Amino acid sequence: MNSATQAGSGAARLDPQRVREIAIQHEPKHRRLIRSAADGRRLSAAMLPLFLLRPPTGFGIITTTGAKTGKPRRKCVRVVWVGGAAYLVALRPPAVAIANPSLVNAWVWNIRANPSVSLRIQGGTHSGVAREITDPAELVRARAALCDTVNSFDLGECAMHLRGRPTQAKIEELHAYWFDTGIPVAIDLECE
Fold first, then answer.
1. Residue 94 belongs to domain spanning
2. Which of 6-10, 34-38, 100-104, 184-188 has the lowest mean pLDDT?
3. What is the mean pLDDT of residues 146-166?
4. What gap in Å lies between CA 60 and CA 52, rounded to an integer?
């Protein structure tokens, strides 16, 4: 299956068997940095103080409302702003996708319960309404925005996640993996 088919297949995007197959194929290229959902939470928590000071280009902090607690929950995310929408993906690292390909990140559950979010990126904090992307045309736009955009901070991301020296091609491949196995989300931002 090619990338365009994967991006445009709507409900088939979240087929657990397909997610597992892609993860198994991609797993040998990855370091063992994130082996569980808890590892991902720890990595985000470690990056949070830096991102609160000044999020690097292409990254930010999404603040959702806890589905059960009602408390604000912050998560570091890779985000690309195109027009009036910000695109991001709930990631499934290979070890997680192989063990539990249906895993839904806590911040996605929070969005499902209450789609009102704030997004801190370079240039400020913006309010918006988040939604999972299901429209095939928007999936293609979001995939292009997220997978074809490479920023300097992505070199570090690539070095943490993939084996070997980071290159633009490896970064784009990593971003394509995240998109093809993750849950794509759009935030319709209220421009202030």
1. 3-189
2. 6-10
3. 88
4. 8
What is the domain count for the chain?
1
Alpha helices in 27-164 (DSSP H): 37-53, 94-99, 106-113, 136-147, 153-161
Amino acid at 117: V
CA distance linking residue 189 with residue 177, whole number of Å:
26
Contact predicate 93/34, CB 8 Å: yes
Question: What's the pTM value of the predicted model, to 2 decimals?
Answer: 0.85
Whether the predicted pLDDT of 147 surpasses 90: yes
Q: Residue 35 — very low, low, confident or very high, per pLDDT cuts 50/70/90?
A: low
- For the chain, strand residue ranges (E) read 59-65, 72-82, 85-90, 116-121, 124-132, 183-189
Question: Which pair of tokens denotes residue 15?
Answer: 């087929």
For position 126, which CATH number holds? 2.30.110.10
Q: Are 81 and 92 in contact (CB under 8 A)?
A: no
Rg over alpha carbons for the chain, rounded to the nearest Å, is 15
Mean pLDDT of the chain: 87
